[in-house]
Design goal:
The complex is a heterodimer of chains A (about 1100) and B (about 280).
Chain A lengths: L15 H16 L5 E5 L2 H5 L2 H14 L7 E5 L11 E4 L4 E2 L7 H9 L25 H4 L6 H4 L7 H6 L4 H9 L2 H11 L11 H10 L7 E6 L8 H8 L1 H15 L3 E7 L3 H16 L4 E4 L4 E10 L8 H8 L23 E5 H13 L1 H5 L9 E8 L5 E6 L4 H8 L9 E6 L5 E4 L9 H6 L8 E6 L4 H15 L5 H18 L5 H17 L3 H5 L2 H9 L1 H10 L8 H4 L2 H5 L6 H9 L3 H11 L3 H7 L3 H5 L1 H4 L7 H11 L19 E5 L3 H12 L4 E4 L8 H4 L8 H11 L4 E4 L10 H6 L2 E6 L5 E2 L12 E3 H9 L8 E6 L3 H11 L4 E8 L10 H10 L2 E4 L1 E9 L2 E15 L5 E5 L5 E4 L2 E4 L3 E2 L32 E3 L2 H4 L4 H19 L41 H4 L12 H8 L7 H4 L2 H17 L5
Parallel strand pairs in A: 1-2, 5-6, 5-9, 6-8, 10-14, 15-16, 15-18, 16-17, 18-30, 20-28, 21-22, 21-28, 22-23
Antiparallel strand pairs in A: 1-3, 3-4, 7-8, 10-11, 12-13, 12-14, 19-29, 24-25, 25-26, 25-27
Chain B lengths: L2 H14 L3 H12 L4 H11 L3 H10 L11 E6 L2 H5 L2 H12 L5 E2 L5 E6 L11 E3 L2 E3 L4 H13 L13 E2 L2 E2 L8 E7 L2 E10 L2 E7 L2 E2 L4 E3 L10 E3 L21 E5 L4 E4 L8 E4 L2
Parallel strand pairs in B: 1-3
Antiparallel strand pairs in B: 1-4, 2-3, 4-5, 6-11, 7-14, 8-9, 9-10, 9-13, 10-12, 14-15, 15-16
Helix pairs in contact in B: 1-2, 1-3, 2-3, 6-7
Chain lengths: ~1100, ~280
């Protein structure tokens, strides 16, 4: 049974001996307590994730089941792994349960009491599925050096006894009993610690200057907790989780410098930090650690809290001082520096929260040991808030000098999605963006400023390919123009003007001249402003201009935002991302309204291969879909396309045709009847041209027919679609190969005025290892073509497939469907996460029984009497991250092993099979693809254009169609004698489709993406029947109504919009300022 | 809101030697804006010119010169939230509430503001409504959030809420149970204690449900009054060395059957409480 003395009842400490005795009595008390303990994080982030309910639930469970004697609870501040909250850490077992719910706490409590684990609730890596049994083994934690943050998980921030039992105030005791003021300053100087607030001024030097100021004036120490950098929250966590460490740091600072007044200047936006600090100050005062004659040593020091009222500029020291004095936070000219003339004219030192938290550690381990952590010029550890597009968001503490790569990939776990990381932004609005190819640099003060950024307070915002760098610059400038105090003209107006230019760029309204002006302005603001805010305000602009200028140019010249962010030029992201500009939103909207013919027309207008794309498109639109980008699941656009093409007869579409009287004078030749060639032919035909298509194979279709297997793309569907395109203006000659039957000069001499080269990439790359020419080894294309066109089943027995792309999966699944095949295994050099093939294709292959061995590379093909016997592989491990954000495989020495195989299919990429082309005067690059002007698709020979895989190397169907469309426009321009370079118009959503009337649903349930129906796995092996089935009408409408209708911002009828705007203005006017 | 209350705030800060900002912060916290007369009063009482006060009141983002709505919606536009689509969330709030940031709806239900970073970056995009954090907000969720807020986030249903559960407590001095089986609050035996404040003495009964703030008292205890509590059996005063985390008063300790201590704040209106198990 407990008694009241268990509650904190601490006597006032009148001497250092009293403090020592207190430690003894507290340790004595906890020594006998061997109950297991559950530690629950109750930081702000975990609170937002529902930790309050978890704590309540645990208490309830313990009380209801009378477990008070068997288990203890500890409620602490932030541990840093905010992404996984709410979580429970057990002691002494160190088990880490993440994303705990009220339903599961009972089992965790019971198991912990019994010394067991609830395995299924332990932290499991979401990508690899690996389960971790100890907190310190989880990569997020194991790669950090958590000197400061680790204390948070041992301390209940509202209980001073917890701080004492974790050796709190020990450093103060050491200072008061054994060190002189000068010795303390000496230790801080030796430690090499530099201010953690951003500028990195050596703390010891600052303190020394303060200590030399005349003492009778009453000196001030300030803790700067006005963490105004958006994206940084480490100060908040330290204040919330361990407020006594700040008090102790400031006390030591006071002793060292002779200051007697302390002020903590903290943001009003941090209510929990203010609360915990207030409690801590009161407790410290009650036990005599603050106030007069501390521990009977004659040392006086007191601390009060001043709440900031929200002004970024108050992070600047002179502005902060004014704010503490209760004035407007405008910076002033220095000198005099605050160390001479600070708060109320008194000598003042300002340090950041994290700096203060480091002081007790320096005193504890000694300056020289501290200096061993980190780099020579940047010592110690630093906390970063790793946020943005990163898997493990949270607070991370690492030694200075750790590389960005280690931080982002090893600790942060890389990108949370399959979108690549592009850059990292450090230092808040005063900092800059560092591109991914510079992630090798170590994080220290010098290196960061060398590359145009700053350390700042430690915000690290990870950005991926879906982050627009112009938008980021605009975002920061918007922030800065609002936060500029207005004292310096150049800052006040400069930030405003820079914002306006950036805003124009994101809206597609800017010119290239303005880009130069922007840079000039940025440099002027940098040079002519007084305080830190103004001097660094240009950094976001200058650093993005330095590393991402092409994005600016893309916005200005092409009115294109690659990241799909800048709304005014993106329109609907699905449409903007689609290489052929399909108005996906439009047909999706029509489907949601049951208007299927309209839907088909919207689709067909953009795409001559709607049924093909409905099955095999790589659907980049879904990657950009707002429904998915905003943390949900994208609309299944491809499945809806399939639904609509299955539903509607192609004849519904009646194309608009131009009549060209002199068409016979402008004949065009197209080489290759693949998606690129046929699209170009079709588009030219609609423009009125006469087109002849020459195809090398016996059937048209190119890769669609030779590469893509029938179970993905039924032949009747493909044939019908192609037949629709061969109209009266198009003549098709099969079995006619360029370089064999015809040449470019021959065509030009025989009445063709322009030529489009779309031969594709039909030659498989080689592994370049011994034995590749053996019988039983096939290049992927050869194997697939033989089956898809000729119906030949080349594979038998045990089949190996090398590669990880779409054709590897195709080859494997085709092999599986051949009757003499016993097993099919794919060998890939990295892990499944890095495989470039479409995810659902990999899933399907595995479902059907294809085996997948990852992290292996072939080194030798072994033969027996000229026939394949098997392959020798070597095992790999994942090494360093390369520029693509993927980890490179590294061979593990001595791990070679042999796999017996009857057939081997090599699918490591294809190249164009155009050895003859350079003899025809067309330039080819070292990879064997044709060189064209990217803007016009023209080759070095006038009038000869090229596109598709023959230019890009193996690429998607939709990219080939896009190239065909573009080529048709360019050929038309060429034949009309128009300028080719003119940028193509980008279409914005323009057709208004009224949103579907939604019946109000009260359900909180998230609308999940539909799952595609497929035929049963058992049936697949024996047939070439199409695996994917079409959606039912009901699921199609459901799925279509998940669309967020990004188009409405552009298509909404003007009248309704105007009415709404007027209403808005009305409200704004009514609510005028009252004073 | 009264002149008196403003005067009281000014007095308190003058005593502590604080600046104008602290005074205005307290007024803002109490009234959710800075009324015209309050600024004048502060000016008169501190001797600072009205223009200086106005300068401070308009310099900092926290202050508002316009009254705010019943509910305060704050949408975070910090960098981390921004790169995760915070702007779309802000646009959606604007669309749903039909007001731009910084404004209040005509029915005075909602004031909508944006803020640059709330320090909950790991959970972005974040919105805070009346102090409640909503994390990883999606545009489709915005409407739902506003409906929830209208229904009331603070409404606690004693029955059926798993966070509220019965406790049995006794006197920390004499060990006697304090539960009164004959007097039910929230359908559960209440906790009986003796109280005194000013010149009044009598009985009070607290709900025995942890998480419920329902009480029944012989007297109407005015808001903010600090009450002394006694054990009705041994008459000892119940006062703990622990201070209330919310307001700083010394708390009332109650011993929990089975081990542990519940402590509640003696200040009327303060909801500070602690539950320690040992």
């Amino acid at each position: 049974m407990s008694d009241i003395s268990s509650i904190e009842e601490l006597q006032k400490l009148n001497s250092i001996d009293d403090l020592k005795k207190l430690y003894w009595s507290l340790f004595e008390k906890i020594k006998n307590d061997d109950k297991p303990q559950l530690v629950i994080c109750s930081g702000t982030a975990c609170h937002a994730s529902g930790t309050g309910d978890i704590i309540r639930g645990m208490k309830r469970y313990i009380i209801e089941n009378n477990l008070q004697n068997k288990i203890a609870l500890k409620i602490t501040g932030c541990h840093g792994f905010c992404e996984m909250g709410p979580f429970i850490l057990t002691k002494p077992d160190d088990a880490f349960y993440h994303k705990v719910t009220v339903e599961t706490i009972g089992s965790i409590i019971d198991a912990t009491i019994e010394g067991k684990l609830v395995e299924e609730l332990l932290y499991t890596d979401p990508k690899t599925g690996e389960r971790y049994y100890k907190q310190h083994e989880i990569p997020f934690f194991s790669k950090q050096q958590r000197t400061i943050l680790k204390k948070n998980q041992n301390i209940d921030p509202i209980r001073i006894t917890d701080y004492f039992t974790n050796f709190g105030y020990k450093s103060l005791e050491k200072v008061l009993s054994t060190l002189t003021s000068n010795q303390v300053i000496e230790q801080v100087k030796i430690s090499g610690i530099r201010g953690r607030g951003g500028a990195g001024f050596p703390t010891g030097v600052k303190w020394e200057m303060l200590s030399k100021q005349p003492g009778d004036k009453g000196k001030y120490l300030i803790c700067n907790a006005d963490e105004g950098d958006p994206g940084a929250y480490m100060d908040r966590s330290v204040l919330e989780g361990n407020p006594h460490s700040i008090i102790e740091g400031m006390l030591i600072g006071g002793y060292a410098t002779g200051a007697t007044n302390g002020v903590v200047y903290v943001r009003n936006e941090y209510p929990l930090a203010i609360k915990h600090l207030t409690i801590a100050l009161r407790q410290a005062k009650d036990v005599g650690l603050l106030g007069d004659n501390i521990l009977g040593t004659g040392f006086n020091f007191d601390i009060k809290i001043v709440r900031g009222a929200g002004a970024f500029v108050c992070g600047e020291e002179t502005a902060l001082i004014k704010s503490i004095e209760g004035k407007m936070g405008e910076p002033r000219q220095r000198p005099p520096y605050p160390v001479e003339k600070g708060v109320y004219g008194k000598p003042t030192v300002i340090n950041n929260v994290e700096t203060w938290a480091n002081i007790p550690i320096i005193i504890d381990i000694g300056g020289s040991d501290y200096a061993k952590i980190g780099t020579k010029t940047s010592t110690g550890t630093k906390i970063f808030s790793l946020v943005g597009k990163i898997k493990n968001t949270g607070l991370v503490e690492i030694p200075m000098g750790t590389t960005i790569k280690e931080l982002v990939y090893d600790i942060g776990g890389g990108s949370p999605s399959d979108v690549k990381i592009k850059a990292i932004q450090t230092g808040g609005p005063s900092g800059g963006c560092i591109p991914v190819n510079m992630f090798d640099i170590p994080i220290d003060f010098e290196k960061l400023s060398e590359v145009g950024s700053i350390m700042g307070s430690g915000g690290m915002i990870v950005m991926d390919e879906r982050t627009c760098m112009v938008d980021v610059a605009r975002y920061f400038m918007n922030f800065l123009k609002g936060e500029s105090c207005g004292k310096c003209f150049t800052c006040r107006k400069g930030t405003q003007r820079m914002y306006e230019i950036l805003d124009d760029i994101t809206k597609g309204k800017a010119t290239m001249d303005q880009l130069d002006l922007l840079e000039e302005l940025a440099l002027v603001v940098k040079d002519t402003t007084m305080c830190g805010l103004g001097q660094t305000a240009s950094n976001p602009v200058l650093s993005t201009l330095k590393y991402f200028k092409e994005e600016y140019v893309d916005h200005i010249k092409n009115k294109h935002c690659k990241a799909g962010v800048c709304k005014d030029i993106v329109g609907a992201p699905c449409q903007a991302t689609c290489p052929i500009g399909t108005e996906a939103w439009r047909y999706v909207a029509h489907i949601s309204r049951g208007e299927y013919e309209e839907a088909y027309l919207a689709l067909r207008e953009a795409n001559p291969f709607p049924s093909v794309c409905a099955r095999v498109c790589s659907h980049p639109c879904e990657k950009m879909c707002k429904a998915g980008v905003l943390m949900g699941e994208p609309v299944a656009i491809r499945a809806l396309k399939r639904f609509i093409t299955d539903m509607i007869e192609p004849s519904v579409y009646k194309p608009v045709r131009k009549i060209k009287e002199d068409a016979d004078d402008y004949k065009v030749a197209v080489i290759g009847a693949g998606p690129a060639g046929l699209t170009a032919a079709h588009k030219l035909s609609l423009m009125g041209y006469k087109v002849t298509v020459f195809e090398k194979d016996s059937e048209p279709g190119g890769m669609l027919i030779s590469g893509i297997p029938e179970y993905r793309l039924p032949r009747d569907v493909l044939k019908q679609e192609i037949a629709e395109l061969i109209d009266e203006n198009v003549t098709l000659h099969c079995n006619t190969a360029l370089g064999k039957d015809i040449t470019i000069d021959y065509l030009l001499n025989n009445g063709y005025k322009s030529i489009f080269l779309g031969m594709g990439a039909h030659k498989s790359k080689l592994l370049n290892i011994e034995g590749e020419d053996l019988e039983g080894v096939f290049p992927a294309i050869e194997f697939l073509k033989a089956f898809n066109i000729g119906g030949k089943k080349l594979a038998h027995g045990h089949v190996g497939v090398i590669g990880g792309g779409d054709s590897a999966i195709d080859a494997a699944r085709v092999a599986l469907r051949q009757k003499d095949v016993e097993s099919v295994t794919i060998f890939y050099r990295r892990t499944r996460n890095e495989m470039p093939a479409l995810q659902h294709e990999i899933d399907a292959a595995l479902e059907e029984g294809v085996k997948l061995y990852t992290l292996v590379s072939p080194i030798k093909i072994v033969s027996d009497k000229g026939k394949l016997k098997g392959v020798e592989f070597i095992k790999n491990m994942l090494g360093d991250v390369d520029v693509s954000g993927r980890r490179n495989p590294q061979a593990i020495k001595g791990s070679e092993y042999f796999v017996p195989l009857d057939n081997l299919i090599v699918t490591i990429g294809d190249t164009p099979d155009v050895g003859y082309i350079s003899y025809m005067g067309i330039n080819v690059n070292k990879w064997g693809t044709l060189i064209v002007n990217e803007d016009t698709l023209e080759t070095n020979r006038p009038g000869v254009f090229a596109g598709g895989d023959v230019v890009t190397g193996p690429n998607t169907v939709v990219e080939a169609i896009a190239a065909g469309k573009k080529a048709a426009i360019m050929i038309d321009r060429y034949l009309n004698g128009e300028e080719l370079e003119k940028p193509l118009d980008r279409k914005m959503p323009s057709v208004y489709v009224p949103p579907r009337e939604v019946v109000e649903e009260e359900s909180d349930e998230e609308m999940k993406r539909i799952k595609l129906p497929t035929i049963p796995v058992e049936r697949r092996k024996s047939t070439l029947e199409e695996v994917e089935k079409t959606l039912s009408e009901e699921s199609a409408i459901y799925e279509a109504s998940r669309c967020m209708r990004c188009d409405l911002d552009f298509t909404y009828p003007e009248k309704i919009r105007r009415e709404q705007q007027e209403l808005m203005q009305d409200i704004t006017q009514k609510g005028e300022v009252l004073v | 809101m009264s002149q008196d209350a403003v005067l009281k705030i000014v007095e308190k800060h003058k005593k502590d030697g604080d600046g104008i900002i602290s005074i205005l912060e307290d007024i803002q916290a109490k009234y959710s804006y800075l009324p015209d007369y309050a600024l004048r009063t502060v000016s008169e009482e501190t001797g600072k010119s009205l223009v200086d006060i106005y300068g401070v009141a308009t310099f900092y983002r926290y202050f508002s010169l316009k009254p705010k709505g019943k509910h305060l919606v704050n949408c975070c536009l910090g960098t981390a939230c921004h790169v995760r689509g915070g702007q779309s969330i802000a646009d959606e709030f604007e669309k749903q509430l039909k007001i731009p940031p910084g404004e209040t709806t005509v029915d005075k239900e909602f004031t909508y503001e944006t803020v640059t970073c709330l320090g909950a970056c790991a959970l972005g995009p974040v919105a805070v409504v009346d102090g409640h954090y909503f994390s990883k907000v999606k545009t489709t969720k915005v409407k739902h959030i506003l409906e929830e807020v209208k229904k009331g986030l603070e409404v606690i249903k004693i029955q059926g809420d798993k966070r509220i559960f019965p406790v049995e407590v006794g006197c920390t001095r004499c060990n006697h149970t304090l539960m009164d089986k004959d007097f039910l609050i929230d359908n559960y035996p209440s906790i009986r204690l003796t109280i005194s404040f000013k010149d009044k003495h009598g009985s009070v009964r607290l709900s025995g449900m942890y998480g419920s703030y329902n009480i029944e008292s012989d007297y109407e205890v005015p808001e903010d009054t600090i009450v002394n509590f006694f054990c009705p059996h041994c008459h000892a005063e119940l006062k703990s060395p622990t201070i209330c985390p919310d307001c700083g008063e010394h708390m009332i300790p109650l011993m929990l059957k089975g081990g542990g201590i519940v402590q509640v704040c003696p200040k009327r209106g303060c909801q500070g409480h602690l539950l320690d198990l040992f």
